Amino acid sequence: MSAWDDGPFLLSAAPGAGKTIPSLVFARRLLSEGIVRRVHVVCPTTPLTRQWAEAAGRLGVQLVPDAEELRPPRDFHGVVATYARAASSAARWAEQCGEKTLVIADEAHHLGEELAWGEGFARAFGATRRWLLLSGTPFRSDQSPIAGVRYEDGVAVPDVSYTYAAAVRDGICRPVAFIPYDGSLSWRSGDDVVESSFTDVDLAGREAGRRYRTAISTELADGLPRILRAAHDRLGEVRSSGHGDAGGLVVSADGGHARRIAAVLKEITGRSPTVVLHTDPRAAEKLRAFAASRERWLVAVNMVSEGVDIPRLRVGVYATAAKTPLMFRQIVGRFVRIRGGGGPVEHSYLFLPADRLLRAHAAEVEEELRHVLRPPAQEPPEAFDDDGRAERRRTEPSEPEAFVPLNADVAPQLALFGGGPPAPVPVSRPPTVAFAGSPAVEEPADLPTFKRRAALRDKRHGLVRTLAGMQNRSFREINTWLNRETGAAGVGSASIEQIEASIDLLLAQLDRLSRRRAS
């Protein structure tokens, strides 16, 4: 990136290979050399804004997480915001964004051209000369181009590419052994009973989708519950072989499915797993707690694709109905992450139905993450056919026939690649995991500025509340006095120095009141 000084720049690295640290080290260099004055990061979700701010703070780049404005307090180098916020604030942010700004777009495949987030991002940050686009999967499931990405003959062309295979070779990512499961599956379809396995190639449309749903059903004891037991046994082997806090993840189809899987795992293990749903307001907190714990199993729906960093995940079960290449690679990326410290790089394991699409995705996962855009006139492929919906729209009446899974007798097959994983790869890893050639950086012990500022604001708020109670004054009146005395436009934009000055004023005033009452 050293020669880059203008326009978009696409950095494509496999999920888990590490894009955050290299981009922040680059941002720090541009700031220290005065090439840019501001660094703004935009990402898909609110929890990710905090992760970015924490990672940046450890490198000396101070960012405000979940920001509403582009202009940060003077203690900060910039902000982190969501794509949704950027799109809704695009007109206002366009006025606040200057030419000497570095914009980092995390998971940039969300920025589809002519779509709300893509158009909003382009408008909000149109004034800056530098867009650093990051993606482990630089293509979209809807086949549309990504804003700012250069294409040649319909193929996305990264400026820097670091593949999963290269990351495994360098000891930066774990290799994943895919373990498909198959066997006899039967279900009731209207008045008929259909029996099949995934090796039957003549099953298509709705019935192929129902076969898949039977394979991930929790109601059939010799189906998914048997696979969950096998996955739990494999997790026990991984733990006993030296990775004592290794964890497992089941990616489920929806909330009800997740809760049923959790019940099965509790019966198998004797402990309730952690269940994380995207509708749960405590989802991010639960993920952080699981990452820091020694608990064995996590069950989630769609909270484990982007930005979830749990290096202790070693065993997974793919039980979601989503089968797009994007979703598949994002889920695989949860099992490739490695903690620093050296030692052999051992395999992770992913159990999955032996579905044709999933087997094809698994077979391609170590190849370059390149994708040919579909010509506009071409019909899109059916990559999400859990109920044969596209086929039914063309050929069937609107009233669906009843579907009831009846029986499953499945078992794990040999791993897809080479009949099983080879011996652990003996590589030594640097303490800081990043791209080959990225500089290692020391992590200061101090809290990131946004955390320190938040703690000071909490203290200030508590003192204002105490003073308001003692003097029978409104919060607004006291805040107006403090802002006037410290020169702050408002507490939201106040610097740390101004907040600390406010605290000193409040403490002095409370001390005077206490002395007066005591006398």
Molecular structure report:
The relative contact order is 0.14. Strands 10, 11, 12, 13, 14, 15, 16 and 17 form an eight-stranded mixed β-sheet that branches. The chain has helices at 20-32, 46-58, 83-88, 90-96, 116-124, 164-169, 205-215, 224-240, 255-269, 283-292, 325-332, 356-364, 389-395, 449-471, 475-486, 496-518; strands spanning 7-13, 38-43, 63-64, 78-82, 101-105, 130-135, 151-152, 155-156, 160-162, 176-189, 192-196, 247-251, 274-276, 297-300, 313-318, 348-353, 403-412. It has 519 residues and is α/β, with parallel strands linked by helices. Helices cover 36% and strands 18% of the residues. The protein contains 16 helices and 17 strands.
Concise structural overview:
The protein is α/β, with parallel strands linked by helices. Helices cover 36% and strands 18% of the residues. The protein has 16 helices and 17 strands.
Main β-sheet, in a few words? 8 strands, mixed
Work out the strand percent.
Answer: 15-25%
Could you say which overall geometry the principal axes of the C-alpha atoms support? globular
**Overall pLDDT metric:** 80
The oligomeric status of these chains comes to single chain
Structural category: alpha/beta
- How far the N terminus sits from the C terminus, by CA atoms, comes to 68 Å
Number of strands: 17
Q: Unreliable runs, pLDDT <50, ≥5 residues?
A: 368-399, 422-445
Number of helices: 16
**Helical percentage:** 25-40%
Radius of gyration: 26 Å
